[in-house]
Model the fold of this input.
Amino acid sequence: MNFASATTAAVLHELFRQCTDLVGFATIQCSLSYLGIYSEHVYDLLAIVDDSAATSHAVHGGFTDACCAPTATSNNHQPMVVLDVRNDRDALIAVEEGQRNLDRLLRRFPTMEHLTHLLLTVCVTVDPAFSSDGTSQPIKSKLQLASGDGGLECTWQDTERIRATISAENSLNALTTCLGDIRSPNTDPRGDSVAMRYHASKLTLLLQDCLHDEVG
Done:
């Protein structure tokens, strides 16, 4: 699970070689983002916050959680970092830095090592210098490289274990959210008594889910 490899270097080299061939005929702009995806959490591997902010529920090990995937109840996530890159060397430097940040994240959360997928995205905008009708529109294209843990053979037992782990974590997160809602019922527009009955019913179902995942 490493994008800092010869294959990635070859892909980026070929991409920027083709971009170089367009110099003189068009203006080229390239940008890059690098994400780590674990269950429903998205980590921007190019954006690190101060460790002193690690106590926030949205920050884990210096990384913003789901920074590029706001939920229906919150849009307060940090914007995803997108770097402008001029050539394959710039892109590889960014990839290597992101890989170091990923290693740092995995040291804090070892259980994520074989469950985290990586997504490297390079966006290329080509603005032609000449056009037959005197007008031109920028052409945008996107190259995405996805990577899982290719170093281990994944058996069906591993797949089931991964699914069970993610299901249990999602159930626990939902349970924690429900408990937080119960602590502040005054914020519910349905009123105290209605909100309490609703959350109590929801809490019962979530507890059943958590117990089922634990037994399974």
